[in-house]
From TrEMBL:
Pfam families: Peptidase_S28
Superkingdom of the organism of origin: Eukaryota
A single GO molecular function term of this UniProt record: dipeptidyl-peptidase activity
Name assigned to this protein: Serine protease K12H4.7
């Protein structure tokens, strides 16, 4: 990630550490283990940038304060690069300023490090609430324009334009932010010289049924067996039977925040969705060095939970309870809400809060879809959260106009605007993991010498972005080195 005169690098990470969003209320401290006390401990102080509210309406001169972080510890102003990390759909985590491969490379190449938070997430609030009227300014298009305006302003502030030396901005990102990194190269090629796009879902889709099919394939790949998959199927059948016979016991087993004995269809759909989501979360984050997970839980992997299903004498239902309770402890949840109306009420809350579910759900309903449905895995989890369930949630939260026709049209527009998996650009490197259920929405085969792909066998979501560790596979180690080779090659090229 590196050098050549003023080589400017844009690093876009999902500060939820590439964790996918979901609408079940999760209490009480998920992802705060990393970020809660960062600022007060002084890792890097926050600074504020006056950003445009609407980049596409010249007559709208409203501005707002966007948060960013700067670290000049290693910076050589005369010849050093600038690393600019732009946030994804979450709080900008200042610990990334001193963690991950980009930080090591910043030290080696004497770079200035900057992190820019995504609008509407974390503490970057363009508007005073999250009403539907105000959320119209939340979009990937506005976010990309934020980056472009920020780059232009930083060039002036740091007087980078006063030199005849070439300045190369290289965009890095993971997950949604990985898509932003690739799209920056497509939409702002005069500002961004190259991009590295990790685990990026480039193709928007309404019914992302492939997600849980990817979950199934990951179980098979990591265990070399169908036993775990079959036990999960068995646990679902036993769970359905238990709900019919003794729902009160089920809610106690699965640490419900409130006791109730007559759940609605919506409650049950949300409950089954929750079970699938949490099992899939282990798969998506399998064997990656997530900063927000306490050390004692960092060995919780696909094989860990599969062993709990297949190598104990427990009934499948009891094994499922133990797995979910383990995940709850790992994520520091007190209890869980399965009541659809309560979750709907929470996500209808338009006040500015730390919980980010409303914002990302809005982007799903207006740009991307990415609804991870049960369509393809009815045998695993029952067909309890189909796409119609997700569409109705959009309508419940944002209004009746957000129907299937509206969402489908918005998704088509997104794919036409960016190109989906058929984007055309030079100097864009795609990095995907074979275990990551998201990889099918991205590019994992090289398109040309100028659009190569690294497909890392056995790794999951954003694995290449995390701190190195002794347990990393040889494929992951080689991938990080290969990324560096591409960057060094590209940074030696003229800007053409």
């Amino acid at each position: 990630m590196y050098y050549l005169h003023y080589c400017v690098m844009v690093i876009l990470f999902d500060s939820f550490e590439c964790w996918k969003h979901f609408r079940v209320k999760r209490f009480s401290g998920e992802h705060k283990a990393v970020s809660a006390d960062i600022d007060q401990h002084g890792i890097v102080p926050a600074e504020w940038f006056m950003q445009k509210l609407d980049h596409f309406t010249p007559t709208d001169e409203r501005m707002w304060k966007q948060r960013y972080f700067v670290d000049d510890t290693f910076f050589d102003f005369k010849n050093g690069p600038i690393f600019l990390r732009v946030g994804g759909e979450s709080n900008a985590n200042a610990q990334w300023m001193v963690s991950g491969p980009w930080h090591y490379n910043a030290q080696e190449f004497k770079a200035l490090c900057i992190t820019l938070e995504h609008r509407y997430y974390g503490k970057s609030h363009p508007t005073n609430d999250l009403s539907v009227e105000n959320l119209q300014y939340l979009s990937s298009q506005q976010a990309l324009a934020d980056v472009a305006y920020f780059i232009e302003t930083m060039n002036k502030q740091y007087q980078l334009n006063d030199s005849n030396k070439a300045r190369r901005w290289v965009a890095f990102g993971g997950s949604y932010a990985g898509a932003l990194a690739a799209w920056l190269r497509v939409k702002y090629p005069h500002l961004v010289f190259a991009s590295v796009s990790s685990s990026s879902p480039l193709h928007a889709k309404l019914d992302f049924k492939e997600y849980y099919e990817g979950f199934r394939q990951a179980l098979r790949a990591k265990t070399s067996s169908l036993d775990c998959e079959n036990k999960i199927k068995e646990s679902h059948k036993e769970l359905v039977d238990m709900i019919k016979k003794n729902p009160k016991a089920v809610w106690e087993d699965f640490i419900s925040c409130e006791p109730y004995s007559n759940p609605s269809t919506d409650d049950l759909n949300q409950f089954y969705n929750y079970i699938a989501f949490n099992l899939a979360g282990i798969v998506q984050d399998n064997e990656i060095n997530r900063l927000s997970i306490p050390i004692e839980f960092r060995n919780i992997t696909i094989n860990t939970i599969c062993d709990m299903f297949t190598k104990s004498n427990d009934k499948a239902y009891d094994a499922l309870v133990k797995v979910i309770r383990l995940i709850a402890r790992m994520s520091n949840w007190g209890c869980l809400y399965y009541n659809y109306k309560i979750n709907e009420m929470q996500l209808k809350n338009t006040t500015i809060e730390e919980d980010l579910g409303r914002q990302w759900t809005y982007q799903q309903c207006t740009e991307f879809g990415y609804f991870q449905t049960s369509t393809a895995v009815a045998d695993l989890f029952g067909d309890n959260f189909p796409v119609d369930y997700e569409i109705r949630t959009c309508q419940d939260l944002f209004g009746t106009k957000f129907d299937k026709k509206f969402i489908t049209s918005s998704i088509d527009w997104t794919n036409n605007y960016y190109g989906g998996q058929n984007i055309k650009a030079r100097r864009v490197l795609f990095v995907q993991g074979s275990i990551d259920p998201w990889h099918v929405m991205g590019i994992y085969k090289s398109q040309s010498k100028d659009m190569p792909a690294i497909f890392i066998n056995g790794t999951s979501h954003c694995a290449d972005l995390y701190n190195e560790r002794d347990e990393d596979s040889k494929e992951l180690v080689a991938a990080r080195l290969k990324i560096r080779e591409y960057l060094e090659t590209w940074l030696a090229q003229p800007w053409t």
